[in-house]
Write a structure and sequence with these properties.
Length: about 90
């Protein structure tokens, strides 16, 4: 799980590196298929906390656990359309 969090953090870091500060959103949605009490969802909440602390609250992550935004296919489609920034569905 720790490796997954590191990978997610690296991907987010690359997005910020290649994105103009004027155009990227300040609030990002992160959808997961895992229930809130599962380690994967707890990791997503930890990721949210770390990002918000590292950016001084300039970037907010909203976590949607337990397939609130749909299953993997639906979340992938939402990411393609730009309606969802991150999906974690293992």
């Amino acid at each position: 799980m720790e490796r997954k969090l590191i990978l997610i953090a690296c991907v987010i870091g690359l997005v910020f590196l290649f994105t103009n500060n004027m155009v990227f959103a300040k609030t990002f949605k992160l959808g997961t298929v895992f229930p809130e009490d599962q380690p994967d969802s707890k990791g997503a909440v930890l990721f949210k906390k770390l990002v918000e602390e590292a950016t001084g609250g300039e970037i907010e992550i909203k976590v949607f656990p337990n397939s609130q935004l749909g299953g993997p296919k639906e979340m992938f489609s939402q990411m393609q359309l730009g309606a969802l920034e991150m999906g974690y569905y293992g």
